Amino acid sequence: MKLHLSIFHKLLIALLAVSLIPLCSLWYLSQTSVKRELNGNITQNLVSTMDAVAAGVGAWENTNVRALRQAAHLPDIVSMKAERQIPILKAIGAAYEWSYLVFTIAPDGTNIGRNDGGAPINYADRLYVKDVVKGADIGRQVVISKTTKEPSLLLAVPVRNEDFGLVGVIAMGTNLKEVTKTVAAARIGNTGHAILLDASNKVVANGSLPNGTANLQDFNNYPALKAEGIYEAPTEFVLDGKPMVGFARKLPQGWTLLIVQGRDEAYEPLTRSEREARTLIAIAIVLVIGIAYILGKQLTRPIRELTQIATELSEGKLGVEIPQTARTDEIGALAKSIERLGISLQMAMDRLRKKA
């Protein structure tokens, strides 16, 4: 079946092509530029937030570790005698308000001295103790404290004698308030937040919870950690059916720091730009259709009239009045040609009558 296109349809197609092709091309180039710039901004926001949180966590830990290392060199601590150690342990505990316990441990895990006056506890099962006994410079572990029964960070360093032999461990139990404050303060828009995980991917602090409260939730199956490339660059993933964008980094402590944000919020400027562009294109289409309709009417009405006149002339109705002859465009020229045709037909008919 042959497709029949009227002047209106052809005019509409031509106007749509002339208006929409440049408009869509400009929209595509603009969106590409906006997306490139927005990706750069998202990366910058995530990385700068990451750097700020990592620096805060690192500085806080370094402060505690430095205090422990300084104390580990004191003769009273090296003596591994509780009566000599306790005054120093109490002084350290008083100086660092976020510490709830400062204590020493023998290589076999036996608790020697502690600043809280509590009964000795055996810490042989604690990872931070095992690591130091095995030779690590720093032992760290996020645990449910045996003392406070709450999530806590335990830091430990070796105590060595003059021959550099290990005689014990000095450790500090800290609540996570300072860490959670740092993590909770890291916000990007309404949905962007930080999550700090320990070496076993348990939550140390979660900025999406009230005040960043830690609950040691297991995040081994957290979708962001399974997103390919998330440690190299901001990467998209899905969390509970919602699109997210995230960035992860391994900290010197062996911990993982995650910065995540809702994708809809992160890309809201791009979404808004696309929405405005679609609205503009829709308006352009409506205007083009309206203009094509008006112009089509102006073009097709006189053509239909002239077509009807030509039909009447062919039927012998030579006295018909021919409009549009005063126009100076192509339609006017066509009208004049039909008028001359009518005159010629009239003259021919007159000659035939005379011969008859």
Description:
The chain is an alpha+beta fold. The protein has a domain at 73-175: PAS domain (Beta-Lactamase). The protein is built from nine helices and eleven strands. The protein has helices at 7-72, 75-78, 82-95, 127-133, 177-185, 223-226, 263-266, 268-314, 330-355, and strands at 99-105, 111-114, 139-144, 151-160, 166-175, 187-188, 192-197, 203-206, 235-239, 242-250, 256-262. The strands form two sheets. Strands 6, 7, 8, 9, 10 and 11 form a six-stranded antiparallel β-sheet that branches. Strand 1 and strand 2 form a beta hairpin. The mean pLDDT is 84.
Task: Let me know the CATH homologous superfamily of the domain at 73-175.
Answer: PAS domain
CATH architecture of the domain at 73-175: 2-Layer Sandwich
Q: Sheet bearing the most strands, described?
A: 6 strands, antiparallel
SSE order, as H and E?
A: HHHEEHEEEHEEEHEEEHHH
The portion of residues forming beta strands comes to 15-25%
